[in-house]
Amino acid sequence: MCNLEHCNLDRRLCNLDLCNLDQHLCNLDLCNLDQHLCNLDHCNLDRRLCNLDLCNLDQHRRLCNLDRRLCNLDRRLCNLDRRLCNLDRRLCNLDRRLCNLDRRLCNLDRRLCNLDQLCVQCSKADCGRWRQLSKESALTASLASSYRCGMKINSVKRVAGVTDSWWLSMLILPPLFKDSPANPFLSAYYPDCVGMSPSAGPGNQRQEHRRAAPPHVPGLSPYFQPFYQPNECGKALCVRPDMMELDELYEFPEFSRDPTMYLALRNLVLAAWNRDCKEVLTLQRCAPHVIVRGLVRIRCVQELERVLDFMTRKGLINTGVLQVKRPLLPESQHNKVLVIGAGAAGLAAGRQLQNFGMQVVVLEARERIGGRVWDDASLGITVGRGAQIVNGCVNNPIALMCEQLGLQMHRLGVRCELIQDGGLVTDPALDKRMDFHFNAVLDAVSEWRKDKPQSQDAPLGEKIQEVYKTFLQESGLHFTELEEKVLHFHLSNLEYACGSTLDQVSARSWDHNECFAQFSGDHTLLTDGYSSVLHNLAQGLDIRLNTAVQHVEYSGDAVKVTSACGSHWTAQKVLVTVPLALLQKNTFSFSPPLPERKLKAIHSLGAGAIEKVALQFPTRFWDSKVQRADYFGHVPASVEKRGLFSVFYDMRPQGEECVLMTVITGEALALVRDLQDLQVVDLCMSVLRELFQEQEVPDPVKFLVTHWSRDPWAQMSYSFVKTGGSGEVYDIMAEDVQGKLFFAGEATNRHFPQTVTGAYLSGVREASKIAAL
Ligand SMILES: Cc1cc2nc3c(=O)[nH]c(=O)nc-3n(C[C@H](O)[C@H](O)[C@H](O)COP(=O)(O)OP(=O)(O)OC[C@H]3O[C@@H](n4cnc5c(N)ncnc54)[C@H](O)[C@@H]3O)c2cc1C
After folding, report:
1. Which of 578, 651, 669, 748 gets mutated to test ligand 1 (max ligand atoms within 8 A of its CB)?
2. DSSP states of 611-645 as a string?
């Protein structure tokens, strides 16, 4: 109705004149219309709408509520869904972890199986496959060395993959070897998770029990003590069975965290070598002693080969006078090397390098080998014109070579009567007292030098005098003339040890090597001389005698060596072993010249001098006074003469031979420099006639006098540290130049200078260096 009216009205409005319309509307219609609308339509409409809407609104509200609840439900469903997803994911994770656990259990199971089994390698050269022994079989060294599998294929799956290095590296269970050759050496240790540990700590044993006794190993030389006993220290070439040495850590860093396997193998190898040093220690000889359950045995045998190679290269095993049929090191390390000098150092290096498989030529200036080892048989027995004594035999490589050759070492006793001019034997109490004072003076020098830099060094002789004077002033003591002379006997011995007058020797560093572990045990005299050892070292080496090297040219890739007679040799590496004095005097030249650092080192060491006199008599006239002691001392008549024949060695104290050997040292060398040999012997005889005044001392039947200081190829006895120098210089002497020139010899060995042992070990050291490059 409303719509209709309105439409009519509109229409009517449309039919009306627009101008009038306004009026009309105003006057009439509009008011009416309004009224009309108001009175009638609008209210009704509104009401109806209201009625109508209210209902709708209610519905609408209900709908809204429904809608909201639906939304909420929807949201909860979503949440549920999300939680379900999470649960699902966690279940998956759990499932994965279970799978992992399962896999680990399987692995454990497999490892347990591995632990239990005994593995053995077929000893047939063309087989070498690993097999698993049946449960009933026991693995022994003899079975391991002779086992033959007789199969053509790898039928055991589990051991087929043993060549895989990753797989092998997983085999890390600590191997505690059954019946290891090391066991008797290590009875004072027990195996634990860090290797072998001392069975008693330092705190829980009484002092006397702590003093280490060498273990008893049947048939072992008393001079072979490769392992420290618990609480022991300071022995040269001795290792702790429970610790890796520095160079071992460099070579086998993978064992640094858990050294157990390495130590077990190294101890086994070292023990096996000490038990039999006359044969090459090969993998085939060693591996059967690796007796351990589980697949770890396979890894142990593989590592054993590396350990053997390393120890061979270092000269810890398969060394000495061994002659080998096959090269000891793998082919990659083979090279050509020239060695200048066939003394102890050159021969040691030559032997080692040749045994490793290298091509070696030794060039020697003299018509003989040995250098400062030169034995003489003209007096009826062997007398060393140069070296003849071994100072400290335990683990000494000279003792090892004597064992290999079955050579005798005569142990030197400690008894040494001090005989005065006039023939009196010095009261042992006085002797002991002056020995004590002498050592106290040296202790005071040691105290003085503690905080002294190199620049404040002083001559040893001067320092000794200073300390001695202070001691006399402070103590108020006064020594008798005899006591003073006995003190000079000791000073003369110090000059013998240094090979020099004390005014040239460093007070700071005269005994620099004492801070390193030194060779301990007996001092011995080599009855057959050092030559028998060196001749065996030289066997099979290509040695060119009468070949004095004059020039070494090392600017190119290869080193060229020229001899005095114009012959040439070339090699990748050259080892120089000539005595220090010759390097100091430039007896041969280097091109380019040696580095400044090396030249400085060469000149800061001293080239010492001592000489020997040996006399053969018709009778052992000294026996009545010294009762077959190994030596007797001579109390010097004056300070200047203290170096003249201060000690006489009986070269065969237990035999019937009648040979005495004595030395000239220190300032006394100047007294004999221009004398004929016979005049030197006369001087010596006048001393002996003073000492044995009570009897007729016969003239010597034969004699020898040495002249090392004027020997063109030595010009010295042994090195010492000059005032202002230091022990470190020995290390610089040993440094190589450009990896082409190498240096060995007693004057390059900081730990063991002056001796044949030191020279020998320096040769072994350089051979190892050359082989490692
Ligand atoms: C009298 C005396 C007593 C000693 N007593 C002992 C002792 O009892 N115990 C001990 O351990 N030590 C002792 N020594 C020290 C010991 O002898 C030496 O330390 C050791 O022998 C040095 O050996 P080396 O290889 O370093 O040198 P060397 O033996 O001197 O060898 C160097 C070699 O180089 C050669 N040579 C030199 N120039 C040339 C050249 N241009 N071309 C080619 N070849 C050349 C020489 O001829 C020599 O053979 C003594 C030494 C002397 C002199």
Report:
1. 578
2. EEEEEE-SS-TTHHHHTT-SEEEE--SSSTTTTEE
What are the strands, taking DSSP E only, across 299-387? 336-340, 359-363, 375-376, 383-384
By three-state DSSP, how is residue 169 classified? helix
From CA 402, how far away is CA 386, in angstroms rounded? 18
Ligand 1 contact, 467 CB (< 6 A): no
Q: Are 732 and 748 in contact (CB under 8 A)?
A: no
Rounded Cα distance between 461 and 422, Å, is 29
Name which of 329, 172, 316, 319 is nearest 247 in CA terms.
316
Question: For 330-371+526-606+716-772, which CATH superfamily applies?
Answer: FAD/NAD(P)-binding domain (3.50.50.60)
Q: Residue type for 309, please? A: D
Instruction: For the chain, give every domain's residue range.
Output: 118-160, 161-313, 330-371+526-606+716-772, 429-508
- Predicted model pTM: 0.83
Which residue from 524, 631, 669, 756 has its CB within 8 A of the most atoms of ligand 1, so it is best to mutate? 756
Task: Return d(Cα 720, Cα 508) in angstroms, integer.
Answer: 12
Taking the CA atoms of 575, 578, 584 and 588 in sequence, report the sign of the dihedral they define: negative
Q: For 660-708, what is each residue's pLDDT tens digit?
A: 999 999 999 999 999 999 999 999 999 999 999 999 999 999 999 999 9
Ligand 1, atom 14, residue with closest C-alpha: 387
| Rounded CA separation 389/45 (Å) | 141
